[in-house]
C-alpha cells in the first residue's frame, strides 16, 4: 500500500485515496496533518474538488462554503468552495460570505472526503461544527463523487 504523503496523493485517484485514508491509522493521519505536509495535502484534496463535482446533482444550487480545518496550536486553514451556474471553484483565499461554514479537525476532514465517515453522525457527535444553511450541510456529499466503501 502507498504511504500517505503529498507525493502519493498527486499520483492516485479518488478510489485509491479513499482506501489509503481508510488503511492509515488515525494516529498516523494526525501526525502527518500536524507536519509540514499539511498544506500540500489540503491543497491536493481541495484542488480535486471541482473534478469530483456533480453538476447534474447541484441543479440551481448557489452556495459559498467555507471549510475550516483546525490544526495544532490553534492554527486553522480555511478553503472556500463556490458552487454557482453549474460549476464548482475552490480557493484557499476565502473572500465571499459563506452560506455554510464547517469546522473540523484535519483527520475528520480526510475521513469525510474519503467517504470513511458519516458526515451527519460526525455532526451529531460534535466532530463537525456547522454554521449557516444546515440543509446544505446535510446534502453536500451528494454534490461530489465521493468514493463509497
From TrEMBL:
Organism: Actinoplanes palleronii
Protein name: SCP2 domain-containing protein
One Pfam family it belongs to: SCP2
InterPro entries registered for this protein in UniProt: SCP2_sterol-bd_dom (IPR003033), SCP2_sterol-bd_dom_sf (IPR036527)
Domain SCP2 per the UniProt entry, residue ranges: 55-145
